[in-house]
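quick one before i forget lol
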Amino acid sequence: MSAKWYETQGPEGDVVLSTRIRLARNLSDIPFGVNLDAAGRRQAVNRCSKAFAQVLPEAKITEMEAYSATDAHSLAEKRLISPEFADREPGTALVLMPDETVSVMLCEEDHIRLQVMQPGLDLENTWKIADMIDTAVAAKLPYAFDEQLGYLTQCPTNVGLAMRASVMLHLPALSQNGAVKRLTENIGKLGMTLRGAFGEGSAAQASMVQLSNQMTLGLSESDALQNLQTVTLQLVEQERRAQAEECRNSLFTDQIWRAYGILKYARRLETAEAAKLLSLVRMGACRGVLPVKTETVTALLTRIQPAVLELAEHTHDARERDEKRAELIRTTI
C-alpha cells in the first residue's frame, strides 16, 4: 500500500507539512444546498457521483450515512472532510481516492467541494491535479458560472475563483516567541488568513497553523497561488531563523530532550499533551538535535488523533486509548 500524503515529506517539509487546493462548485440547474432537503441532496449527489466515477474510477464513493461516527470524525481529523461534514447529513456523500490525496464532499455547503492534498509546499502541482479533475468534471456537469462574477457559490465570500489554496505550517519557534499572534493580524492585510490546524474557528494544535488565500474576486488562480507561495516562503525563512536562535538556547534544547524522554517512556498520553510534545520533538528532528526522522513525527501527529487511533486500535475506552497512544509513540520513535 502506498504511503498517505501525511506520511511523507515534500518541499520545504521542515516547516510546510502540506498543501491543499479546494474548489467549490455548484450545478446550475439545482438549487444551492441551503434550499435542498435530503431528497434534493440525493438528486445532486447522484448526478455528481456519476461524473466523478468516470473521472476518478479508482475512487470510492460512499454515502456519509454509511460511515460510523468514528469513521467520519477520523476523516475530519485527517483533514479529508470538514468537521461539519462529519455530522453525516442525510443525502450527502464522499468521493475518496485510495491514497487520500483527493477527496470530494458532495452536498456539504456547495454541491461539490473538491480537495487535493500534497505533502510539503507544492502549490503548482496540487493546482494542476485539482484543475485537471475539475475540467474533466465540468465537461460532464453544468456548473453555475457567471461571466462577470465567476463561479457562483452558496457563501458570497467564495464567489469568483471559488478556490481556497492553503498550506499547513509547523511554527513552533514563532509560536514560542509570540510572533504568530502578530503575524495573524498582519496576514489579513495581504488578503490571506492564518487559522488553526482544522480551519475556521479551530485553535492551533502542536504549533500547526493553516495559511490560506482569502480573496476570491478580482484576481486569477495563478495570482492567488503566487501570492500564497511568496508569503509562505517568507514565513518558512522566519521560522527557520527563529528555530536556529532557539536551538542556541540550552534551556530550549533541554525542553526538546525532555519532550523526547517523556514520549519514549510515557505509558498514558492524552491527545493535547502528546501533540504538544511531538511538536517539540519534530522541531528537534528538523534541526538535527534528536535522532528521529521528521516524517515519522509528522505522521504521528495524524495517527494520534482520537478517532484515527480508535479505528486503528479498535478501542472505544478513553483511558485505553490514551495508553494505546503512548504505546504507538514509544514503538514508533
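fyi The first helix runs from residue 38 to 55.
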